[in-house]
Amino acid sequence: MPNSSVPWDTIFAILETWQQDLEKQGIDLPSVSNLAFEAETDTYRPWVVLVSTVISLRTKDAVTLSSSRRLLAKAPTPEALVKLTKDEIAQSIYPAGFYRTKAEHLHTIADLLIHQYDGKVPDTLEVLLSLPGVGRKTANLVLSEGFGQDAICVDTHVHRICNRTGWVVTKVPEETEQALRHILPRPYWRRINWLLVQFGQQICRPQSPLCSQCPLTSFCKRQGVSKSR
């Protein structure tokens, strides 16, 4: 059962202080959050988040950032993207993982947005999930980062950390999302992803987490951790 007694206010205060220290060291936000922050208008932001999140799957942050910027410079709208060939899209996002498959998905998404949604990114989970290459992680990130809605985006970092600490006991990210919906105060829904993604990259790594440097040691059960540093 999920742990309903987690001191979320304290945990998020610690994580936000830790994240601010990272910023002082010149370490950027996760790539999609960074691009969303840079987006100049509310109408442009959902498109930026959708494109960059599709590119980000199984791709390192630095590659996601550079690939997304290259493509968005050529295709700041669905109308502009659909005019590119799939090879041109693939070349723009290379070396992102599965770049040719992602190019196919992005071209199809742009075409669907133009012909079915007046060129706009949908703002509901159900419709976003109907787009090719869009799963719950991508859809929830578009809702939270793109539209500012209360949505919980659970990727591998969020899933791993929430289980390792014992905050939830789940087997797959979808179960973690549902568990967090029951125990995580709504004001934290949007923030949990970008905070834990950075934390998972820097401290709570998949293998040999840096437990000696972890500011959340008092709140962690270290489930499944056999070796740490």
From TrEMBL:
Family: Belongs to the Nth/MutY family.
Cofactor (UniProt): [4Fe-4S] cluster
Keyword 4Fe-4S: yes
Organism placement in taxonomy: Bacteria, Pseudomonadati, Spirochaetota, Spirochaetia, Spirochaetales
Sequence ranges assigned to domain HhH-GPD in this UniProt record: 55-202
Cofactor note: Binds 1 [4Fe-4S] cluster.
Residues the entry annotates as binding [4Fe-4S] cluster: 204, 211, 214, 220
Domain of life: Bacteria
Catalytic activity: 2'-deoxyribonucleotide-(2'-deoxyribose 5'-phosphate)-2'-deoxyribonucleotide-DNA = a 3'-end 2'-deoxyribonucleotide-(2,3-dehydro-2,3-deoxyribose 5'-phosphate)-DNA + a 5'-end 5'-phospho-2'-deoxyribonucleoside-DNA + H(+)
GO molecular function: 4 iron, 4 sulfur cluster binding; class I DNA-(apurinic or apyrimidinic site) endonuclease activity; DNA binding; metal ion binding; oxidized pyrimidine nucleobase lesion DNA N-glycosylase activity
Enzyme class, first EC level, given as a word: lyase
Function text: DNA repair enzyme that has both DNA N-glycosylase activity and AP-lyase activity. The DNA N-glycosylase activity releases various damaged pyrimidines from DNA by cleaving the N-glycosidic bond, leaving an AP (apurinic/apyrimidinic) site. The AP-lyase activity cleaves the phosphodiester bond 3' to the AP site by a beta-elimination, leaving a 3'-terminal unsaturated sugar and a product with a terminal 5'-phosphate.
Protein known as: Endonuclease III
Organism of derivation: Gracilinema caldarium (strain ATCC 51460 / DSM 7334 / H1) (Treponema caldarium)
Keyword Amino-acid biosynthesis found: no
Matches recorded under CDD domains: ENDO3c
Name of the gene: nth
